[in-house]
């Protein structure tokens, strides 16, 4: 089989291998002792050594090595136990690669080319195995059946995959099966007659990490708020951990941040995923690949990945075909070499003229020619599914060209009608603030190098981006080219070209409007580069105001955030105003997503990633400073302002150059380089304040070669101590710092960063959730213990999540009920059905068949704003102050009474009476509460006595009112007022007779002389029966009820949903 290339330092160590076949680049070797009939001592010794080793350490008898002439290092690229298989691999290498390798001039390119080919073959084999397994889903169907039977979750809980592994309890491993689904991870083990099973919702996972212990060198630790669980002995640890991180990240973003819904949407569009988990696995893999591609090429977040095809692209500067992968999205083509960062190209589909197939030959198999508007063409070869790829690209290209032609025709009409305004806006908005400086020798040299680069690698958005351009960027982009290259590297130029007059329209719409964002903008305008001449006049301030206001109008979710003013100011110095706007759009929405919003989730995730990189790349610093959170806090401004707020201006602009070329990877690398340069001083610092001073002092003295005030441009001064001169302050060149960051930390890849972000986003979102809970519990203002209130919050939130997991319409209505921008106590809300579920779990006395009616009435009573939702504040208030758990008998009776009067009358309960029908309902509620009580018979007798007494009281009052109405004909002002209140509440659901099997007719409070009874009369009657007084005054243990509810909530709710789904 093919292997991921592994270095072999000694090709024939200890004479353990015999070469069977060889040529200039490959060796086919056999393990000495395997197949030898002569029985030589060396062969017998090697054979015996291989035999006694365990199965994991045994060496396969055949292997193929890649050797580069003149190098002492070889790479193992294939191994196997059968000579026939190895001969097939050998023949493929000779027929397909040997001739191509002979044309390479650089021998290092040979190794890179072959390794890329082998990795492509491995990827094809993996896809082939997955396709074969997908065609026979019986194994997965069996796993799915076991999953449903063992854990009792609804069928809408989609299983993704299963793994055989061990779950550790202390030092004891339990072998079993780990099930990963969309919303949960579950483990089942049955060993030596003992069954172990548990379910962990992804929403409860606070950390996922790989650890090493004394027992196992590689384990997955899953941490929740209650406990930790360790898993090991996976057949494929990397794959299992990757899917666990991805599923947890998707679930948390969906539940806590209203994001990450791509998987759910794909699942709902593809009902066949019920029996084929490989389809769902591919959806997850495609989503991870899409996130990587968007980050690699800094594409708009709405782009959908269409194809990913292995191929080779002709690179004129290298005079060879570079192996890599072609990624196509809705509006872009992107090519990246096997080694990330070595060579890449981004081609907007709007720049493409045609995509054509050329004649296939042995030297150029399956070629495709992509022609662009700049009269250039890109050649791709070795495309596996060339026909379908070309057809798909051609279809999207034609659709895009048709939309552009339609837009241009409409634009010509609009421009004709708005020509006077457009000429004024053009004059106003196309001013430029490029700093006027003298051309220096260094500046001219850099310009010449860039012009040479353009002639060799191309110019514009689709230029080849290689390691050479990285070196040029590290030197600093010339002032005259900075704006153009920022627009090119970020692809803001494509957005500008495809949205003509968009900015002008935004400015016209937004100027003159007043909002919180515009107030903050006005406050920060004069704080943006206040020392720069461009922003010491009205023209510069006005341009900055228009850019920031237009963006706030474009994206109201972000609006305006601090540090955007600094960034926009720098952009205006090197680009025109409209270009600066599109650069700001690119930074906020593509390159730094989730940075500029109220919660700053993206920046916090990157700070957490930065901490892990410090521990990994700077272990000595991490050892001396175990708590890295202060360094993370200090570095937050580095990421938010791209070092613009901490470095001298001219040095910071060089960092912005690197950022537009490499994205956030450049900020991570530079941050690590800064910490490494100050590691000794940081390790010896006494506190956080001293560490801040160390880093601030270092960054203040980082200078640029072109800066006239830089010490590098000044003549050398006398050394310290000579002729009374003070010691010379040490300075660091920004170019040296950037180069150092590339050399020491340049191996950091976008794929690694995205993987770390996926894992650390879990921790950040859960930290935000902890803050939300803490504030919600602290601001509930109810008479419950903090422990009970915390547990009730968890029950309330879990009920909300369960509806998201399995409820009908969970991606529409239910998601709208969680808004992170709302007050903490109002972020989570439940509807009527969810409240009924919580009511059954928490109410101290269930009412049998009457429970549903009482829960319905209680929900209506609590829903004061009539939006059909109850917030946590209202729910906690019902349990803490306005519920059966309160200590006062009067309050408990008052609550039951309020359930049988019109809404809004609770405040005047002493003046509000209920009719006879509602009193009967009140008695039903009391009767149903006594079922199952040890004193049931005595309570029934007591309530019968009270009922008779109240009926008599009501009858006496009814007769007195009837007789009084006959005597007086015009003395009913107060009764009329009461009647008006009653008239307005006739149609309320509380008074609907549907619950009694009626026709829905109102209860008829319209007659002022009908039979009624008051709260005071009912309370006085109840107090005459000591048995009832003892029942209502008996203290209730809310803690025990909450603990029981936490155990029962999940499976009772799941069972109810399964019954509901089964009846449809």
Automatic annotation (TrEMBL):
Cellular component terms, GO, for this chain's entry? cytosol
Query: Mind telling me which SUPFAM superfamilies this protein's record contains?
Result: EF-hand, Ypt/Rab-GAP domain of gyp1p
Question: Per UniProt, which keywords does this protein have?
Answer: Cytoplasm, GTPase activation, Repeat
Pfam families for the chain: GRAM, RabGAP-TBC
Region described as Disordered:
704-728, 960-1003
Domain Rab-GAP TBC, residue spans: 476-663
Its recorded name reads TBC1 domain family member 8B
Gene symbol? TBC1D8
């Amino acid at each position: 089989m093919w292997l991921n290339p592994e270095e072999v330092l000694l090709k024939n160590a200890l004479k353990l291998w015999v070469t069977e076949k060889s040529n200039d680049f490959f060796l086919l070797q056999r393990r000495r002792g395997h197949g030898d009939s002569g029985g030589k001592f060396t062969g017998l010794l090697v054979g015996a050594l291989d035999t006694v080793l365990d199965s994991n350490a045994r060496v396969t008898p055949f292997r193929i090595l890649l050797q580069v002439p003149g190098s002492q290092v070889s790479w193992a690229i294939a191994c196997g136990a059968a000579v026939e298989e190895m001969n097939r691999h050998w023949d493929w290498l000779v027929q397909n690669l040997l001739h191509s390798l002979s044309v390479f001039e650089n021998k290092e390119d040979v190794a890179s080319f072959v390794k890329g080919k082998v990795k492509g073959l491995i990827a094809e084999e993996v896809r082939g195995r997955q396709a074969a397994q997908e065609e026979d889903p019986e194994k997965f169907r069996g796993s799915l059946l076991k999953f449903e039977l063992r854990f009792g979750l609804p069928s809408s809980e989609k299983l993704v995959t299963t793994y055989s592994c061990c779950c550790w309890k202390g030092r004891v491993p339990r072998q079993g099966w780990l099930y990963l689904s969309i919303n949960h991870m579950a483990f089942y083990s049955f060993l030596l007659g003992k069954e172990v099973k548990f379910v962990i919702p992804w929403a409860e996972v606070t950390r996922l990490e790989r650890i090493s212990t004394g027992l196992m060198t590689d384990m997955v630790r899953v941490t929740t708020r209650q406990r930790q669980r360790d898993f090991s002995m996976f057949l494929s640890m990397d794959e299992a951990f990757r899917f666990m991180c991805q599923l947890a990240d998707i679930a948390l973003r969906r539940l806590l941040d209203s994001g990450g819904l791509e998987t759910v949407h794909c699942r709902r569009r593809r009902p066949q995923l019920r029996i084929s988990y490989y389809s769902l696995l591919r959806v997850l893999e495609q989503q991870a690949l899409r996130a990587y591609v968007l980050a690699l090429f800094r594409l708009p977040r709405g782009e959908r990945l269409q194809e990913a095809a292995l191929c080779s692209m002709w690179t004129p500067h290298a005079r060879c075909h570079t192996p890599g992968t072609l990624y196509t999205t809705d509006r872009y083509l992107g090519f990246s070499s096997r080694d990330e960062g070595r060579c890449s190209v981004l081609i907007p589909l709007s720049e493409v003229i045609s995509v054509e197939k050329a004649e296939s030959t042995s030297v150029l198999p399956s070629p495709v020619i992509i022609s662009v508007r700049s009269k250039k063409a890109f050649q791709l070869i070795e495309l596996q599914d060339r026909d379908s790829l070309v057809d798909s690209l051609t279809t999207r290209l034609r659709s895009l060209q048709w939309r552009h032609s339609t837009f241009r025709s409409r634009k010509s009409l609009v421009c004709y009608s708005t020509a006077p305004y457009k000429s004024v806006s053009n004059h106003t908005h196309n001013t430029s603030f490029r700093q006027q400086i003298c051309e220096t020798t260094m500046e001219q040299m850099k310009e010449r190098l860039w012009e040479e680069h353009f002639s060799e690698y191309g110019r514009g958005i689709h230029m080849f981006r290689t390691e050479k351009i990285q070196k040029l960027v590290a030197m600093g982009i010339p002032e005259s080219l900075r704006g153009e290259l920022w627009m090119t590297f970020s692809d803001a130029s494509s957005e500008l070209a495809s949205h003509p007059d968009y900015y002008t329209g935004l400015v016209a719409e937004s100027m003159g409007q007043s909002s919180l964002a515009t107030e903050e903008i006005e406050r920060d305008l004069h704080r943006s580069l206040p020392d720069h001449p461009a922003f010491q006049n009205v023209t510069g301030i006005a341009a900055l105001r228009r850019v920031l206001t237009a963006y706030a109008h474009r994206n109201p979710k972000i609006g305006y955030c601090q540090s955007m003013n600094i960034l926009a100011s720098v952009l205006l110095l090197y680009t025109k105003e409209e270009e600066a706007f599109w650069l700001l759009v690119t930074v906020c929405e593509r390159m730094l997503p989730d940075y500029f919003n109220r919660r700053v989730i993206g920046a916090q995730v990157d700070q957490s990633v930065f901490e892990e990189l410090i521990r990994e790349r700077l272990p000595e610093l991490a050892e001396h400073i175990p708590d890295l959170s202060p360094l993370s806090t200090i570095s937050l401004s580095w990421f938010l302002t791209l070092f613009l707020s901490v470095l001298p201006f001219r040095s910071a602009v060089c960092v912005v150059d690197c950022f537009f070329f490499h994205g956030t990877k450049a900020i991570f690398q530079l941050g690590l380089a800064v910490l490494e340069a100050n590691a000794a001083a940081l390790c010896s610092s006494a506190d956080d304040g001293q560490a801040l001073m160390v880093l601030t002092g270092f960054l203040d003295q980082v200078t640029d070669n072109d800066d006239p005030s830089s010490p590098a441009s000044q003549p050398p001064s006398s050394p310290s101590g000579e002729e009374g001169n003070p010691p010379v302050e040490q300075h660091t060149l920004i170019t040296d710092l950037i180069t150092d960051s590339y050399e020491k930390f340049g191996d950091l890849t976008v794929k690694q960063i995205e993987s770390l972000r996926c894992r650390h986003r879990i921790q950040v979102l859960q930290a935000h959730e902890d803050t939300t809970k803490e504030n919600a519990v602290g601001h509930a203002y109810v008479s419950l213990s903090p422990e009970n209130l915390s547990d009730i919050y968890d029950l309330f939130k879990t009920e909300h999540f369960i509806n998201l997991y399995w409820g009908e319409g969970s991606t529409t209505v239910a998601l709208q009920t969680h808004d992170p921008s709302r007050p903490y106590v109002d972020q989570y809300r439940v509807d009527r059905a969810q409240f009924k579920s919580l009511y059954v779990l928490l109410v101290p006395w269930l009412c049998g068949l009457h429970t549903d009616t009482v829960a319905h009435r209680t929900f209506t009573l609590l829903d004061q704003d009539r939006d059909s939702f109850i917030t946590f504040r209202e729910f906690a208030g019902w349990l803490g102050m306005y519920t059966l758990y309160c200590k006062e008998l009067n309050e408990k009776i008052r609550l039951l009474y309020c359930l049988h009067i019109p809404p809004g009358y609770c405040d005047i309960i002493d003046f509000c009476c209920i009719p006879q029908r509602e009193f009967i309902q009140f008695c039903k509620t009391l009767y149903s509460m006594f079922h199952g009580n040890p004193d049931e018979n005595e309570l029934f007798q007591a309530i019968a006595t009270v009922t008779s007494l109240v009926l008599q009281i009501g009858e006496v009052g009814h007769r007195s009112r009837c007789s009084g109405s006959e005597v007086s004909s015009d003395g009913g002002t107060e009764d009329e007022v009461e009647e008006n209140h009653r008239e307005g509440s006739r149609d309320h659901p509380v008074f609907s007779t549907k619950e009694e099997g009626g026709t829905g007719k109102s209860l008829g409070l319209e007659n002022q002389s009908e039979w009624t009874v008051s709260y005071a009369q009912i309370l006085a009657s109840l107090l005459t029966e000591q048995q009832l007084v003892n029942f209502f005054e008996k203290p209730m243990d809310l803690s025990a009820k909450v603990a029981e509810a936490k155990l029962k909530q999940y499976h009772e709710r799941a069972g109810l949903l399964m019954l509901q789904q089964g009846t449809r």
